[in-house]
Specification:
The structure is a homotrimer. The first copy, chain A, contains 7 helices and 5 strands, in the order H-E-H-E-H-H-H-E-H-E-H-E. Chain A is globular. By secondary structure, chain A is of the alpha/beta class. Helix content of chain A is about 45%, strand content about 15%. The interface between B and C is large, with 38 and 39 residues.
Chain lengths: ~170, ~170, ~170
């Protein structure tokens, strides 16, 4: 009888284990405040032992571009788009006022996006760059930072997200 | 004894079946890039066999308006609002630069929002139009595309979302 | 034998009970339409018996500022930022046209953000103000409305969200 009573508990434990606390964040926005929020949540969750995957798409790809890296796209239109849409985590605009916030952050010694991103990488947050929109944005692999885990599309994102307990679109 | 050992597994299977992989997407934004992201995720999930529900509200309702359809709202203010806020999936603005992206998409034969939306409908993605905000936006049923499954409010959305494994707000 | 067959069901019921229907909403945006959507979902979910937690961060903090309250930040930069970035749920801008919507809402007797927020508080929606960004935005506790349940950071949010069935970032 003890065996049969333990059985369902073991099965339940396995079920719960098969759904560990996973966090996925799609970062579409290139705004400084939204990128900050995304990385604060990502690093916070990773520090709490959760498995975190960030999926960078559209303007969010700017966050993971190397500073000053130029588009190496072959055709002039994509190259021009890449030039206009400059990258690097330290050049993101704010969704509203840019005024003041950056200065306040420095005065209060708050980590900015580049520092948060570094922490995320150190805490093994997985970075996935969206291949579908990279082409669209004139962004090539050689212009992205080191530490990108995967170049993939929506299927890879969904396979992770459906196991996730917290899935955010930012 | 075999029966009792099978029992919990069956119950677990039932539990897992009662929580199938469902995706819900609230599309509030009327920006081209965000609508594209929403439909790429929706069609991707549906192609993977997930049950997908899209809930269109506020500017997201523009995505599912028939091209060139005019508001048939009775009062002048709503009608005017409907005119200013023109609909149709092929007239969505971009959250940042409009320049280039549409051309790059065509050059690379990427599907646009109208094509993605058509695929979504073919893959049985459920479309729900938010009745609360339709009134607010001066949008009437007769100006929306065919294939809307339901005209409903927040309760219908939440009933689906609480069964969902991936719930996004875009 | 009956006992062993009931056992897994009880265990399953406990598992389901340990994951009640919880909703978390991060409100980063200060746009009227997005704040409305957030509060419509929050009040709808609370009315359906779900446990709802709203986490106000960045511009979303403006929603829960007392009308006309001035920043009491000591340093001039934060104070200036607080002045520029005026608070109060009735002064939120719209993410697109401001024109018309407010008037249409009044004509149709739709509740605005202040009314929805009041209903949310009455339905025991929990309000958490993000301490990390309060400092950044030059917002102090004494300038926020009454009824804030907690002043906390990302860890508190994640602890709730990982129990949630619907977690939205707005």
């Amino acid at each position: 009888m003890i065996a049969t009573q333990i059985e369902p508990m073991t099965a339940l434990a396995q079920l719960q284990e098969s759904k560990p606390d996973r966090v996925t964040i799609v970062l579409l926005s290139g705004d400084l405040d939204k990128a900050m929020a995304a990385f604060i949540i990502a690093t916070g969750a990773a520090a709490m032992g959760m498995r975190v995957t960030m999926f960078f798409t559209f303007w969010g790809l700017n966050t993971i571009r190397r500073r000053g890296a130029r588009s190496s796209a072959k055709d002039w239109l994509r190259r021009m788009f890449g030039l206009l849409n400059r990258g690097g985590a330290d050049t993101l605009p704010l969704s509203r006022f840019h005024f003041g916030m950056q200065t306040v952050m420095k005065q209060n010694r708050m980590p900015g996006v580049p520092e948060l991103m570094q922490t995320a990488l150190e805490l093994d947050v997985r970075f996935i760059a969206c291949t579908t929109t990279m082409g669209l944005m004139g962004i090539t692999k050689d212009t992205l930072i080191d530490g990108i885990d995967q170049f993939a599309g929506v299927t890879t994102y969904l396979a992770e997200a459906k196991q996730g307990s917290v899935n955010l679109f930012i």
